[in-house]
């Protein structure tokens, strides 16, 4: 738990937008003023009764963009996508314990992505809790496993300081989930409007010691088979360029951990090999390495335990050296290592532009879909990938396409792609967002489509509709269970009835089309990329 944040400064923000004869403001108004002064000006919200004073304050405190989500998992997933693109938090507004619970799956992903998020969670008035009303719950207890910082404001006077500390906690390296619980009477009670609004600055990330960097340099100079395993912000464009210099100087390979929050890819970017999800493939990739140098990453492990398969994916003889933790200054560590190796003048090898040839027509398969998307991908697109079994080749297919960023599932909680796409589109309105979504995963958060339509967000959603939880067929085999028989198979089957994504999307106000051939998919993508706004493309498989 992150308990302390340094450099809490008291400053007067000079807000003049609240005009009360008694010179007071509510706790909710104080919270909004503080969020805005701390740089948090977007709130993804699904409010209820306990949050009405926050909602009311939106009309008296200017500057907060509030975006409604019809389900709290959409709200928290959007905040995650926003944070991944801007490295600063949005707020969420959630309704008591059940509202928080609805959003926990994507808060789990956000925590694994090191995304800064400030949750504002309403609660019953402090004096009402003892009556055990139907919505009473242990909100702090529910929030703690999915938050790095949790606090309940006891009164209106404490709200501003608690809010500033929450923002500082969220923005402390490497990025954290902070949850501030606001009892209803804390929100409606008043405080002196002339009280200075606090602003908090997070602790800067620590730097690894010179000896740790020197040890990494010594390993790289030895000449054994070595790979840098990159995680956290190490897979962004600038740190990747530094890692590319190290590779050029030493011959080391560059690997990305399987589940990274954001990876810069495409023409002009340093290429990195993503460690595969399947155990056999990852073991085969890693078995040749004598040394693994961790750069904001953990030593590679399996996603699940399986009978007669290893939990660690690297050979027992491999030497593991942690250059820099994910909560430390990754760019500093790589830059210092470049200098130590004398690699500053070297050019890093980057991908050239040359996507796969786009087939003129034919059936849609994982390979042909990857070729079409790669050939047509707009420059600086944001690709949110939850394609699962269909998209096994997509990461490699896109390596020579136009420069782009890829957002990946980090915590394994299903239903992240469409909510993440919302946040990415709000954060970067000048960039095309493409969500690669499997149909089973998309059905966890279909309400995201409504928010896309309401905000007219520039998102193209490709839904890969095999009408089955296909990945579970694979997992039945992986865990050594018998193949899915007639009863077990019903738990993987998404027919009876089959979901019509075109009708579903149109019902939420999003234009949609069904494509069954390469040519139809190309036409649909041309239409989607030529216009601003959301579109769903259903691809039956």
Explain this structure.
There is one protein chain. By secondary structure, the chain is an alpha/beta fold. It has 3 domains: 8-200, Thiamin diphosphate (ThDP)-binding fold, Pyr/PP domains (Rossmann fold, 3-Layer(aba) Sandwich); 210-341, TPP-binding domain (Rossmann fold), CATH 3.40.50; 366-540, Thiamin diphosphate (ThDP)-binding fold, Pyr/PP domains (Rossmann fold), CATH 3.40.50. The strands form 5 sheets. The chain has a 7-stranded mixed beta sheet, with helices on both faces. It has a 6-stranded parallel beta sheet with strand order 4-3-5-6-8-7, sandwiched between helices. It has a 5-stranded parallel beta sheet with strand order 14-12-11-15-16. α12 (366-376) packs parallel to α20 (518-530). The longest helix is centred in the N-terminal third of the chain and has 17 residues, at 96-112. It starts with 7 loop residues before the first strand and ends with a strand.
């Amino acid at each position: 738990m992150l308990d302390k944040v340094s450099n809490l400064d008291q400053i007067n923000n000079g807000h003049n937008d609240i005009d009360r004869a008694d010179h007071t403001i509510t706790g909710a108004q104080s919270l909004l003023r503080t969020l805005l002064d701390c740089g948090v000006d977007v709130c993804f919200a699904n409010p209820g009764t306990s949050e009405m004073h926050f909602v009311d304050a939106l009309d008296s405190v200017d500057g907060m963009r509030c975006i409604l989500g019809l389900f709290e998992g959409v709200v928290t997933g959007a905040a995650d996508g926003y944070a991944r693109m801007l490295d600063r938090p949005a707020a969420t507004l959630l309704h008591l314990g059940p509202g928080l619970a609805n959003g926990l799956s994507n808060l789990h992903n956000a925590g694994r992505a090191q995304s800064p998020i400030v949750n504002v969670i309403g609660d019953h008035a402090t004096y009402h809790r003892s009556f055990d009303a139907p919505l009473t719950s242990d909100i702090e207890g529910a929030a703690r496993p999915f938050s790095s910082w949790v606090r309940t404001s006891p009164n209106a006077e404490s709200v501003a300081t608690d809010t500033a500390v929450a923002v500082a906690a969220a923005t402390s390296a490497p990025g954290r989930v902070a949850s501030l619980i606001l009892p209803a009477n804390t929100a409606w009670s008043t405080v002196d409007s002339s009280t200075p609004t606090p602003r908090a600055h997070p602790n800067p990330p620590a730097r690894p010691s010179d000896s740790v960097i020197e040890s990494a340099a010594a390993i790289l100079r030895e000449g054994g088979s070595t790979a840098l395993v990159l995680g956290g912000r190490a897979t962004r464009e600038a740190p990747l360029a530094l890692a590319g210099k190290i590779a050029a100087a030493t011959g080391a390979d560059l690997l990305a951990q399987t589940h990274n929050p954001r990876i810069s890819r495409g023409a002009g970017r340093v290429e990195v090999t993503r460690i595969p999800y399947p155990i056999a493939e990852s073991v085969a990739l890693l078995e040749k390495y004598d040394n693994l140098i961790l750069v904001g990453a953990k030593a590679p492990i399996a996603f699940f335990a399986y009978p007669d398969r290893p939990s660690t994916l690297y050979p027992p003889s491999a030497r593991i050296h942690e250059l820099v933790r994910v909560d430390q200054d990754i760019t500093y560590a790589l830059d210092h290592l470049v200098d130590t190796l004398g690699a500053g003048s070297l050019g890093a090898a980057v991908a050239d532009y040359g996507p796969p040839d786009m087939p003129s027509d034919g059936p849609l398969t994982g390979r042909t879909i990857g070729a079409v998307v790669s050939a047509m991908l707009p420059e600086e697109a944001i690709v949110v990938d939850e394609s699962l079994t269909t998209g096994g080749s997509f990461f490699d297919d896109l390596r020579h396409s136009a420069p782009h960023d890829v957002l990946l599932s980090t915590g394994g909680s299903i239903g992240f792609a469409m909510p993440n796409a919302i946040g990415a589109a709000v954060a970067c309105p000048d960039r095309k967002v493409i969500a690669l979504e499997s149909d089973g995963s998309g059905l966890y958060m279909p309400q995201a489509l409504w928010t896309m339509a309401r905000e007219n967000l520039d998102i193209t959603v490709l839904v890969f509709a095999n009408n089955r939880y296909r990945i579970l067929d694979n997992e039945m085999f992986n865990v050594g269970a018998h193949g899915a028989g007639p009863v077990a198979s019903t738990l993987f089957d998404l027919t009876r009835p089959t979901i019509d994504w075109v009708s579903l999307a149109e019902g939420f106000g999003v234009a949609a089309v069904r494509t069954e051939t390469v040519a139809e998919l190309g036409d649909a993508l041309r239409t989607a990329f030529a216009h601003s706004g959301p579109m769903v493309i259903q691809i039956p498989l």
